[in-house]
Amino acid sequence: MAPRLVAWKELPFEAERLEGLRLKEQSRLDGKVAERQHERLRADRESERIVVQLLTPAGRKARGFVAWRPIAGRGRRIEFLYLEPRYRSATRLQALFTLIREQDPASGPVLASTDLCLGIAVGKQAGVLVSQGYVHVDHAWMVLAPNRSVAVPGKLALGTIRHAKPQDASALIRLYVRAYARSEDQLLWPTMDLERDASTFIRGVFSGKIYSLDNESSFVLEWGGKLIGAILTTVDPGTGPFIGDLMIDPAFQGRGLGRHLLARSVAAFRVRAPSAPVGLQVEVQNRSAFALYRSFGFRSRPHPPGMRHGAWLRKLDVERIKAQPVA
Prior knowledge:
With 327 residues, this protein is an alpha+beta fold. 35% of the residues lie in helices and 26% in strands. The protein has two domains: 4-132, Gcn5-related N-acetyltransferase (GNAT) (Aminopeptidase, 3-Layer(aba) Sandwich); 142-302, Gcn5-related N-acetyltransferase (GNAT) (Aminopeptidase, 3-Layer(aba) Sandwich). It has helices spanning 12-30, 32-46, 90-103, 122-129, 169-179, 194-207, 257-272, 287-296, 315-323; strands spanning 4-7, 51-56, 64-71, 75-83, 110-114, 134-144, 160-163, 219-223, 226-236, 240-248, 278-283, 299-301, 310-314.
C-alpha cells in the first residue's frame, strides 16, 4: 500500500502515540519547552486551529505526522513535523512533502515549514526542499560575553531616548510595521497580516501574555513627536538577559541609532547583572542587523538544544515580500 496522509481522527490512538514519542524525544533536548509545545499542539489540534495528518505507509500503523496551520487567503504553514526514528531519511521526507502538497491543494501552497524535524539534519532537508522551491532563513543565536566592556553611549545623532511604556503601544505597532515591511519573517508570524501580527506582539509584550518586558532596559527613540526606534528586552530566569527586538524606522537607518539603543540597553543589563551574558537571535540574511551585533561584540553560539536553526520559506513569497515598497 502506498504511503498516504489521513486525518488524525481516523487513527486517534496513533496520533497520541506519535505525539508522545515526539514529546519524549524533544524533552531530552529542551525539557519544559517541549512540554509547552506539546500542550499547544494538543490544544490546537482539539480546537481545529491546526490540521494534523498522520503518515500511514500501510494498514493502520502510522510512522509520523505533520501539523499545519491554515493562513486565510495565503496557504499553509507547517508547525510540527515528526517521523519515527527508523522511518527517517531524505527519501521519506521527500515523499512526505509530496503528499503534503497533494493532500489538500484547496488550502493553498505550503508557505513555510519548521526545520526542526528531529533526527534529520538541515543539510539533508536542503536536499529535499531546495529543489521544491524553498529557501532557508538562518537564525543565529548570539551572545555578548559578560566580560565584554560596553562603551558609554555618546550623544544621539537626533531625537530623545526614554524608557518604553504601555502608552507607546499604538506608536510601536506603527513603527513595527514600517521596520518589518520587507521582512521574510512575516511568513512565520501568526496570521501573515503584518499590522495584525504587530498588534498581537506589541500588546502581548506590555500585557505579559507573550513575555514580560524588562522596563529598565527597554527604550524608545522619539524625534519630531514620532517614534523612530525602539529596543524591547526581557530577563528570563533560565537564559538571562535577552534582546527581543531592535527596530529602527527605515527612513532613519544608517545613523547609529540602533547602536545607541543597543548600548543603552546592554548598559542597563550590566548594572543589575554584570556577570550575565546577553543573548539575542537574528536572521543571518539580515546583513545590517547581523553586522551591527558582530561589531558590537556579539558572537554566534551553537543553538540551544531543540531550537530551530531557522525556517524553510517558499521562495516566491520571499521574493514578493522583498519587492514590496517600504511604507
